[in-house]
Amino acid sequence: MLLTITTTAKPATDLGYLLHKHPDKAQSFEQSFGTAHVFYPEATEERCTAALLLDVDPQALLRSRTSVSTPDFALAQYVNDRPYASSSLFTVALGKVLRSAIRGASELRPELARTPIPLVLHLPAVPCRPGPEKARALFEPLGWTVEAEPVPLDLGLPGWGDSHYLSLTLTGTLRLSEALSHLYVLLPAMEGGHKHYWVDSTEIDKLLRAGGAPVDGVENEEGEGAGWLAGHPERGWITRRYLARRDRYVRTALARLAESEDRVETEDADGAANGTAAVPSDPAVEEREPSLAEQRAGAIMAVLAAERATSVIDLGCGGGKLLERLVRDRTLERITGVDVHLASLEFAHRKLCEGCHPDGGRRHRPLFADHTTGRGDQAAHKSRPELLLGSVVYRDRRFHGHDAAVLMEVVEHLDPSRLPAMENVVFGDAAPRVVVVTTPNIEYNRHYEGLAEGAFRHADHRFEWTRAEFAAWADRVAAEHGYTVRYLPVGPEHPETGAPTQMGVFTT
Q: What does the alpha-carbon distance between residue 83 and residue 150 come to, in Å, rounded to a whole number?
């Protein structure tokens, strides 16, 4: 198995600082299933190439296996593609030999580790039964230019056709840590979930960590740009195959990715926006039910319809997931989105403009200027939402005059000491007729495989409430500001722990 990494960023030999492997040395690293070699076929100031070669010992591989399925025939343990095709074995070696590079750690060149550089990654043989189009659908949304050429079964017998292996070349300008994390996750997914080792719940954290999602409440060490998997249009397909189609683990991983999706969009808006136009996921392997995020937004829309709201302000609108639904509601006469992060508003603006104009946003107007939708979309809604840069903990006259306010997964991101300020702004000063609040139910967290006991679902959560704690807070707020409140579950309910999301509907 072979991977070459080439850069032309000058001086190109600084690639050695990122890989923590000196260009003048050839190094070997023993693995339980063979030996990994790192060497530099070329190393000049203008161009540098590093190679990772994994030499698999079939007998060592067999001895290292603690759990194997029954082979189809007696020699299947020895006669296979493991020594030749870059698959789960290769990613294990990649994760061990280049661990610091994947983390983006470089003591001597920290700025370089955070800087995108021109890269060309080449793997001569990668298993991918869905074919070249799937490889492009996986890597292109991440910023790669993809060359995926099928490998013939036999060069001397062209009539036999192509194998299910690809010669894969990826060209792009990315941080090296990002590039390696893409390979770490996507190579096993392309292989089809046929990992050489037993898959258990620890694989969920490996997937989330490499994909940039928070694990046990701790942000990924890659820092900025992390979170690529949560925003990937093929995340359901990737997750299912990486976790070897273990449905229980897949559901947990997708739920935890959904919890971090809004944050991902705000931190890496450009990358996520590029992914929205990619090839859609295969419905045969996508989630069987709507994600929790979709169920949450749907429940809010149902409440607003039942309350006959005519104007809505989405406080903490993030990347605009709820706004997308609101603009399709013909009964709403005014829609406002508010967020404290400018990047979130810029992403929401771009997403909503793309929805208005099929040309992909070439007719964008300025972010904070009103404009109507493209011709033909006038019936869907009268104008795009007004987007405001603001905070729910500061009084703002622009919040006034709305029939309903929504705080969807917002309160848990506030420090407890700031909650009274938010209460006074929303319930006291703005005082809409209806306020909808959703927040995680911490009691349900026990059903998420791999989430440590007591850990929050997202690294930015300052707290997560039990159902009793949420009810105590909501009852007090309602009494102090002249509202009544009712409670609704969102998502699948468990008889002991309730639903994953709890909703409070406040009405005057």
A: 19
**pTM, full prediction:** 0.55
Q: Which amino acid is at 49?
A: T
**Pairing assessment for the beta strands 34-43 and 27-31 based on DSSP bridges:** antiparallel
Instruction: Return the axis-axis angle of helices 176-191 and 132-139, rounded to nearest 10°.
Output: 150
Among residues 180, 187, 79, 71, the alpha carbon closest in space to that of 128 is found at: 187
Helix (H, G, I), strand (E, B) or coil at 444: helix
**What is the spatial distance between Cα 482 and Cα 472, in angstroms, rounded to a whole number?**
16
Burial label for 327, CB within 10 Å (0-12, 13-18, 19+), is: buried
- Round to whole Å and give the CA distance between 272 and 141: 8
Distance, CA of 478 to CA of 427 (rounded, Å): 8
Question: In the chain, how long is the greatest CA-to-CA distance?
Answer: 82
Please confirm whether the linkage preceding 11 is cis (ω < 30° from 0): yes
Q: Kindly list the strands in the beta sheet with 484-490, ordered across the sheet, starting from the edge strand earlier in the chain.
A: 386-389, 334-339, 311-315, 404-408, 434-440, 501-507, 484-490
Which residues have CB under 8 Å from 474's CB, separation 6+? Answer: 437, 485, 487, 504, 506
The residue among 17, 156, 1 whose CA lies nearest residue 9 is 17
Tens place of pLDDT per residue across the chain (508 aa): 899 999 999 999 999 999 999 999 999 999 888 899 999 999 999 999 999 999 887 666 665 554 444 444 444 555 555 556 667 788 888 989 999 999 888 888 889 999 999 999 999 999 898 899 999 999 999 999 999 999 998 888 888 888 889 999 999 999 999 999 999 999 989 887 566 566 777 888 888 888 876 554 444 443 333 478 988 889 889 998 888 878 888 888 888 887 665 544 444 333 333 333 333 333 333 334 578 888 999 999 999 999 999 999 999 998 888 999 999 998 999 999 999 988 788 888 887 876 554 444 444 455 554 433 333 343 344 457 899 999 999 999 999 999 999 999 999 999 999 999 999 999 999 999 999 999 999 999 998 877 778 889 887 899 999 999 999 999 999 999 999 999 999 999 999 999 999 999 999 9
Structure tokens at 250: 């897949």
Question: Position of tokens 């954290």?
Answer: 205
Report how far residue 317's alpha carbon sits from residue 342's, in angstroms, rounded to the nearest whole number: 11
For residue 90, what is the enclosing H or E element? helix 88-97
Cα(first)–Cα(last) distance of the chain, in Å? 66
131 in helix, strand or coil?
A: coil
